[in-house]
Amino acid sequence: MSATAEVSSEKVLVSGGAGFVGRYLLDQLRTGGIEPLAPSKQELDFRDGDAVRALVRDTAPSTFFHLAAFSSPLLSWKRPAEALLTNMEMTLNVFEAVRHEAPQATVVLVGSGQVYGEPDALPAIEEAPLRPGNPYAVSKASCDMLGYQYAESYGMGVVRMRPFNHAGPGQSEEYVLSSLTRQIAEAEAAGSEECVLRTGNPNSARDFTDVRDVVRAYVLAAEIGSGAFNVCRGSSASITELVGMASAHARVAMRHEVDPSRLRAHDVPELYGSHERLTAACGWQPEIPLEQTVRDTLDWWREKLRSQE
């Protein structure tokens, strides 16, 4: 069964469709023959509750994928109020609009695996306590709990997705895998004999899933009904391991250095999750090997830099 086979052919709304993950989600939906409505920031501000309610009233969606967010954990340390208030306000507006104007619609709420912080045991499962360790994660935990409350109080269909680290072609260099592959592509483009890869804590280990697998999970999850679900590979890879994967595809000599400016306070040593609940609910499993994600992201940066010459 394709990832889009069970999504209703009725109207599908997507917030945040212009973002890294949003663009892949729109492609996934269109591949399945669904033309989603995805208003841009210029067309609609999701912090405007009246405008969001009018959109839902006019379109009567069957599914609302809510991706729009203040999405940078790093920037959230510098702008905590913006991260918290923006994410809560947009999410509240979506829930209120759907509750009043399209109560039968399912909201697929995209949260974050960072809500677990440093769990007592690995892999992190959905029943684990939420211990967010940065303002961004606090905002996502708050939105997750808001989704739980709307599902419980109003009988709404709210699927709370908790994606762990995801990566792939087109991601901002703020994120570790994209940063690594860009550094390599820049060294190659400059004709350097050696690339010095600069990273933060080399032992930091996270659960990386290809963005193309992640959006496939979102589409499949639209038919689940309600509940919280991890989206993850189910194992961790350290920064050192990512460096090794990226170096294997480099066309220049490689050297790895730790950059003190990239070290993060409150860095959880290791975090990975279990996707067993999601797999049981809809059959989703990650399919794209991490090595392929690394290679595809490096090739994307090479092409992007060539196009800028």
Give an overview in words.
α1 packs across α7, α4 packs parallel to α5 and α6 crosses α10. The protein has a domain at 12-169 and 208-236 and 267-287: 3-Layer(aba) Sandwich (Rossmann fold), CATH 3.40.50. It has helices at 20-31, 49-59, 73-78, 80-101, 135-154, 176-189, 211-221, 239-247, 276-282, 290-307, and strands at residues 12-15, 63-66, 106-110, 157-163, 166-167, 194-199, 205-206, 209-210, 227-231, 237-238, 253-258, 270-271. By secondary structure, it is an alpha/beta fold. The protein is built from 10 helices and 12 strands. α5 links the parallel β3 (106-110) and β4 (157-163). 42% of the residues lie in helices and 15% in strands. The strands form 4 sheets. A 5-stranded parallel beta sheet has the order 1-2-3-4-9, sandwiched between helices. A 3-stranded mixed beta sheet has the order 10-7-12. It has a two-stranded parallel ribbon with strand order 5-8.
